[in-house]
Please model this.
Amino acid sequence: MTQETQARDRVLIFDTTLRDGEQSPGATMTHSEKLEIAQLLDEMGVDIIEAGFPIASEGDFAAVSEIAKRADDAVIAGLARANLKDIDRCWEAVKHARRPRIHTFIGTSPLHRAIPNLSREEMAERIHDCVTHARNLCDDVQWSSMDATRTEWDFLKQTVEIAIRAGATTINIPDTVGYTAPVESADLIRRLIAEVEGAEDVVFATHCHNDLGMATANSLAAVAGGARQIECTINGLGERAGNTALEEVVMALKVRGDIMPWTTGVDSRKLMHISHRVATVSGFPVQFNKAIVGKNAFAHESGIHQDGMLKNAATFEIMRPEDVGLKATSLVMGKHSGRAALRAKLKDLGYEVADNQLGDLFVRFKALADRKKEVYDEDIEALVRDQGAADEAIRLKFLRVICGTEAPQSADMTLTIDGVDHQVTTQGDGPVDAAFNAVKALVPHKARLQLYQVHAVTEGTDAQATVTVRMAEEGRIVTGQSADTDTVVASAKAYISALNRLMVKRRTTAEGSDIKTVSYKDAG
Ligand code: KIV
Ligand code: ZN
Model:
């Protein structure tokens, strides 16, 4: 949708999960995971997908190009710093899209101007040259004055006017450090629209970070001020406290249309599924009480609430669970259920699986059904999450731990590494520590454990545990996740999954790519 055809009450949703979200340390996604998320975003009705930062690495370039080739409806944007080399590289990647966009930016606040040491005049010239160059390549160009909310008013106005004159079609006003507040956010956009020459020819966008917990409120306030594009991520993924959460702005506009008369093109019934997928592939679990997509968002524990809900759901519910794609937790199948039933259930949960994937899932489903009395939808989803294992270099073949009140605890482990079995017995301070020591003995490495987290998938003592492990090695941060009815097995598999990702990351950063040196913050 262009600014000529966009209805005044229509707000464009610009998703940056694959760019700003993926920049979050440890949230790295694989190539195939990025393609999957892009497809889900496109199917859900997101207007613009920011697929990555093509100059950052060969991997980013390949992902943006492939997403551009595959996209059906969505505009595919790539990020480029305000320099000709970045912009050319970005265009090379996005040009395959039916509807490509170049998104270029520079930090305009005094603090950001000081980094490349540019005067206002030099920066103004740079903006003019870069937007002109981008516009010569692509009809759809987005300009961002990074840290706009801390940029002097007169200079912000000037940068925006230069970008518009040079051909920008969307003007983004980022609140890069989550500093603004709703009243200010609305006023800034309102003032820009009123005073900037050429404002009527462009779409104004809002891009908020959540450092003070106001990203959603600030984004909606910006829309009240006249912005017609919200930049956001699934689950609010993003550096530090994250970005505006897509599911929150979409549902707020849907539920409170009475006071916020603006619509989006997003099919809200697909929110829960994509939220689960992003949590899985990024390794960032959704907090239980997260608005819209948290496990407890529709749970009513207290007696008073339950009583009210039974009499009339509207007493304590402002939206229906099914509006966000939440189905009542259902008992799925037992050990007698067949392959066709599993395929049907997966489809119902939003997963299309190939025959070979189904075969593998079916074997693991049977094994789970043997161990667990009741198999729920969440268990099936946990099985899907664990699927990476088949093509990974390190795999857990055997684990037995001895634990209890008498120390030392020990682990006997066999790992298959590049097709060859290796065995070790180690001790540790508790069963998880012993198992981790075993992995480390078989795969020596210097990565530091940054996070170890356990969540129960469902209720009951036979519930599966989902374990998340985050590790860091020389600036590379990776996350692994796994689920099992045995918490120690899930822990070992999550650790191994993180190591597998680390090995991939070591390769991509050793390929001579500039991933470690190019950051979107080096705006020069
Ligand atoms: O937060 C920010 O300013 C950004 C820009 C690159 C748009 O992400
Ligand atoms: Zn950002």
Summary: The chain has 17 helices and 16 strands.
